[in-house]
Each structure stands twice: as structure tokens, then as C-alpha cells.
Amino acid sequence: GKEKKKNPKKKQETQRPKHMRGIIIVSLLILQSLVVSSSPTAPDFNFFYWVNYWPGAICDSQKGCCPPTKGNTASDFIIHGLWPQFNNGTWPAFCDQTNLFDISKISDLVCQMEKKWTEWGVWACPSNETNLWEHEWNKHGTCVQSIFDQHSYFLTNLKFKYKVNLLNILKQKGIKPNDGFYGLDEIKNAIKCVIGFAPGIECNEDVKGNKQLFQIYICLDNYAKEFVECPYVPDKSCASKIKFPKFPERDSLSESLSVMSSVSTT
Ligand code: U2P
Questions:
Q1: Catalytic hit among 80, 119, 135, 202
Q2: By alpha-carbon position, which residue is closest to atom 5 of ligand 1?
Q3: Of 119, 135, 140, 202, which is the active-site residue?
Q4: 69-76: long-range contacts (C-beta < 8 A, 24 or more apart)?
Q5: Whether 135 is catalytic
Q6: Tens digit of pLDDT for each residue in 120-152?
Q7: How confident is the model at residue 23 (pLDDT cuts 50, 70, 90)?
Q8: Ligand 1 centre from 72 Cα, in Å?
Q9: Among 72, 74, 127, 163, which is disulfide-ready with 119 (CB 3.0 to 4.6 Å)?
């Protein structure tokens, strides 16, 4: 049979001494880590929804509510979350099982979050802020790790909360939480007037079946830095005039509490 002749010269060229190969590999690894750290990967989603909800719309719904166990109950919109979105109307979720919520990473923010990101028994009863934060990071935050770690994800939500006072924006246009009915466009325009772009509005129904203001979706660019025009908004749930329910009074909530007995997660 034919025996392939070895080419001693070529062998010499390809087989470098072991220590040289080690040095080359280590140098390549250092180079790679420098490239990675100096140019973070671009977001692989198109924009964000920053979503706030109105507790009044939970408490006067069929579902009922239970008030937050911690923090104050300022009559205000409450943060729901910051959700990465694709332009085609879908969104990524639960992207990474290896970096799940760890409250120790945000211990310096908890005090502010207990005020601005409370849970009115919307997703679980009794209400549990920590579960909501955990859910939001695990579902949405793990999909935005190209730009955020746990701390910066939660901090970004808080920063927008301090920047945009939705209730004041509406009140200044005479739109008040008084169980009155307001034009959907009137509500959107009031917000557009201040941030430059119309938000999406999600409605639910009170016990009588009236459509009411439940959640406000503000669109941000894919680095969560600027407001942007929403590529699409979840508007179908509203009517042209919608109710702006009163903020729930803790004292009147005992009935609602008994309505909602099961624990639900979305
Ligand atoms: O609609 C149910 C839940 O799915 C998530 N959602 C919905 C619409 C959308 O455009 N983007 C998005 O992320 C929300 O997830 P949650 O954090 O509440 O589980 C929404 O409530």
C-alpha cells in the first residue's frame, strides 16, 4: 500500500513548543475578554414597554384586591415592569435559568421599591412585592442582560418612576381618579404632551362591566434611555370613553379580600 510520507518541515512549522502554545492561547483569551468588555453586545430585542398599573382598577374589578403588606399606599400609579419587546408583537421571556432573582443584589433599592413597586393583590393574594419583583426579573430581566444586570434593571425602573409622574400629568389636564369617564384619546394626549409620544392604554372592567384605565404602556428605545413612538400598542381592551376609578381606600377593602382567595400567577 501507499504510505503517506511525512513532511518534516511542515511538522516543524505547525508544532510549536508547548509553552509557546500556552502563551498564545492565554493572549487570545485576554484579547477576547477585552473585546467583549469594551463592546457590550447589542440588545437582541427592539424596544421596551415600561408599564405602570392603577390599583383602583384592580380593587373595583370582579377579582378584587388586597393591599400591599409593606411600604406606603400613596395614591399613585405603581410600576408593573420593564418588558423587552419585538416589533412583530411578540416578546422574549424567561431567558436565563442561571441568573435568577437575588434580592441581595438590590438591597439598597428595596426601600424605594416598596414605595413605587408595590403589589395590590393583582397577581397574587395576599400581595407579595418580592414575588412580583422576582417574577419581573426572571421573566423579563433575564432577557435584557445584554444591557442590564439585576441592579441596573430595577434602578432603571425607579429612575423612570421619578422622571414621569403619570398621575400629575393626567391631573393637570383635569383627568382625575374620581370614578369619572374620560376620552381615551384625551388620556393619551395628556401623556403625549409631556413625554412626546402617545402611550398604550390597557383597560379592564369594573364589577358593572365599565371599561376602565388599568395599565399605561410607555415605549422606550432598546437601551431604555429615551421615549420612542410605540411600534404597536395593546389598545384593543378599551372603549372610546373609559372610567378612571378612585384610588382604593384600605378600610373598604375587606369585601374584596374575601372575593379573591386563590393565588394566581401570570
Ligand atoms: O399579558 C400577560 C403578561 O405577558 C407579558 N406581556 C404581555 C404583553 C406584552 O406585549 N409584553 C409582555 O411582556 C406581561 O408579563 P408579566 O410581567 O405581567 O407576567 C403581561 O402581564
A1: 80
A2: 83
A3: 140
A4: 69/126, 69/127, 69/128, 69/129, 70/114, 70/118, 70/129, 71/114, 71/115, 71/118, 71/129, 72/115, 73/118, 73/250, 74/115, 75/167, 75/177, 75/247, 76/166, 76/167
A5: no
A6: 887 778 888 899 999 999 999 999 999 999 999
A7: low
A8: 25
A9: 127
